[in-house]
Amino acid sequence: MEIIDISLSISSDTPTYRGRKEKKPLLERVRTLQEGANEMRLSLETHTATHVDAPLHMLEGAPSIDVLPIASFTGFAFVAEIRHRSVITAQELLPFQSTLREHTFFLMKTDNSFTNLNREDFVYLEQSGAEFLAAKKLKGVGIDALGIERNQPGHPTHKTLLSQGILIVEGLFLREVTEGWYYFMAFPLKIKDGDGAPARAVLLRM
């Protein structure tokens, strides 16, 4: 069995949504070996690097990340390579119609995997694409960008998926991953009342 780490590292150089400097993680050395042990303090937003969006992120009164069942964050996943597209609509997803299965994850490998993740014009999932995926009753949708949508007033992509109980995983590192089926795990930090949380995401290939 092969375990493939598809998580971004957290550091002062971690890319952020649209390159916003105020979203950079802050790491501070608070103790050294000379003082007994190496220890650091970490300050970061809940939607940093590879992370999971809870329904509470966009829906009032919806479940937070800490109350979601642990089984929500794991399951079979199809990695779909969708290259040379600036936006993913329902049209771009039609070739995967027969591949999609209920209660599985659909992970999108796009040109984001080969460009600077700080960029503003990243490839995103448009509303019609979200509606197409929601109709398939998936367990979760992931993308290799630090956001699953942009320039859509009201955040319809997020709301379409989260309102149907479909998790969103952003910031996946899929550059070296080939298209196909895997077993997927992305366990977020258990942050009380969290609207999301950083996660360590992996793919398992038998």
Structure in words:
It is a single chain. The chain has a seven-stranded mixed β-barrel with strand order 4-10-9-7-5-11-12. A two-stranded antiparallel sheet has the order 2-3. The protein is 9% helix and 30% strand. Helix 2 packs parallel to helix 3 (156-162). The chain starts with a strand and ends with a strand. The chain contains three helices and twelve strands; from the N terminus they run ββββββαββαβαβββ. The chain is mostly beta strands and 206 residues long. It has helices at residues 90-93, 127-134, 156-162; strands at residues 2-5, 26-31, 39-43, 51-53, 74-81, 87-88, 105-109, 124-125, 140-143, 167-170, 180-188, 196-205.
Uncertain residue segments: none
Care to count the β-strands?
Answer: 12
Q: Let me know the largest β-sheet.
A: 7 strands, mixed, barrel
Q: Would you tell me the overall average pLDDT?
A: 97
CATH homologous superfamily identity: Putative cyclase
* Shape annotation: globular
Task: Tell me the count of domains.
Answer: 1
Across the major sheet, the strand order is: 4-10-9-7-5-11-12
Number of helices: 3
Distance between the termini: 4 Å
CATH topology: Glucose Oxidase, domain 1
**What's the alpha carbon Rg, rounded to whole Å?**
17 Å
SS strand fraction: 25-35%
CATH class: Alpha Beta
Return the CATH architecture.
3-Layer(bba) Sandwich
Classification by helices and strands: mainly beta
- As a percent range, the share of helical residues equals under 10%
* Helix-strand sequence: EEEEEEHEEHEHEEE
